[in-house]
Amino acid sequence: MKTDKLQGIENRYLTLEDKLSDPSVIENQEKWRKFSKEHAELGEIVTLYRQYKKVVETQNAALEILNDKNQEELFELAKEDLKEAEKEIEKLEHQLHLLLIPKDPNDSRNVILEIRAGTGGDEAALFVADLLKMYLKFAEHRKWKCSIVDMNETDLGGYREVICTIDGHNAYSILKFESGVHRVQRIPETESSGRVHTSAVTVAVLPEAEDVDIEISKEDIRVDVYRASGAGGQHINKTSSAIRITHLPTGIVVTCQNERDQRQNREKAMQILKARLYDEALRKTKSETAQNRKEQVGSGDRSERIRTYNYPQGRITDHRIGVSVYQMDSFMNGYMEPIIDRLIEADLNLKIKEGEGNG
Predict the structure, then answer these.
(1) Number of structural domains found in the chain
(2) CA 288 – CA 282 distance, rounded (Å)
(3) Are residues 172 and 313 in the same domain?
(4) What is the pLDDT of residues 119-139, one digit of tens each?
(5) CA–CA separation, 178 and 105 (whole Å)
(6) Residue 350: which CATH number?
(7) Which DSSP symbol is given to 218?
(8) Which of 191-205, 250-264, 287-301 is predicted least confidently?
């Protein structure tokens, strides 16, 4: 067990406790929030490490008795204590090992979810609506807050594109493996011959960017205001409340029309623009270090086909981990854990394997 590293973490934890009670830090809210967040993140590992140290003390005390011939009357009790301590140490070492695995720094962030129709025309657009419902239901089960920012609806009730924000505890860590191409195989309602069609939809899950991550100069953006269209109430067509922001250096365009006023739409559009720019920076970094993780669960490549939804067979297959589930209705109603939990587990196992290889 890497006790030196663990002791260093505990020392840092104690230092942060001192800083959080320092009046000069309390007055500086930005600094206080930063230290408070780090303190909370270290809390779990420090608690476990302290338990570990106590059990090691019990183990050493039992060994001391067993090596002392003058305490033979305590041998049986010491043997029992040693056996329990060794068992507990093994469990705690495993838990600490998992906590020492480097985490994705974005895991605790909120999410910008973008779903776009690919090949398949109207059927692909209808599947965008189905996936949107699935993710909104999943978020609802977890008591996360969702808000649709922009949508491009079709006449048949589908969407060519829909963008929403999802705010919730560790949302990105749970949803990040959803990025990629989702393929659907089913008989469209408009298909009179009963022939199965294959369509595709692209999902992008972006971590919400913080102000410290991305700075956008006013000179780098062009803001256009126009009248919104589509669902959203009568007010939506009376005023020019919709916002289109163009980031001139990259050509990225973001629109937002679902909020009630221009200011709210502008704030949401800037939130999405920052997330896209932050995502581009992350993807560039990942591509530079991709050789280090050739076996990763998901590369984040939007062109990668990650999952197939086969309606005639009632089967959902995730191609990255080779897992199929036959719970179509339940899955599409937001109960996605049978696959999501296995993706998280597979990623953790790869990180453990990498850690052993680097150790």
Answers:
(1) 3
(2) 10
(3) yes
(4) 888 999 999 999 999 999 999
(5) 18
(6) 3.30.70.1660
(7) G
(8) 287-301
Q: How far is Cα of residue 282 from the mean position of the Cα atoms in its chain? A: 14
Is 172 found in the same domain as 143?
yes
What's the pLDDT at 299? 44
Instruction: Tell me the pLDDT tens digit for each residue of 233-257.
Output: 334 445 678 899 999 999 999 999 8
Which is more confidently placed, 195 or 237?
195
Q: What is the pTM of this model?
A: 0.74
Q: For the chain, what is the total number of helices (H) and then of strands (E)? A: 9, 11
What is the rounded CA–CA span in Å between residue 358 and residue 354?
6
Domain that holds residue 53: 3-100
Rounded-to-integer distance, Cα 40 and Cα 18, Å: 14
Q: How far apart are CA 359 and CA 357, in angstroms?
A: 6
pLDDT tens digit sequence for 72-88? 888 999 999 999 999 99
Average pLDDT, the chain: 87
The rounded distance, in Å, linking the Cα atoms of 70 and 67 is: 9
User: Could you give phi then psi for residue 42, rounded to 5 degrees?
Assistant: -85, -15
Q: List, edge to edge, every strand of the sheet that includes 197-207.
A: 145-153, 159-167, 111-117, 197-207, 180-186, 305-310, 315-318, 323-325
Reference 306, options 343, 332, 348, 278; nearest CA is 343
Q: Are residues 55 and 27 in the same domain?
A: yes
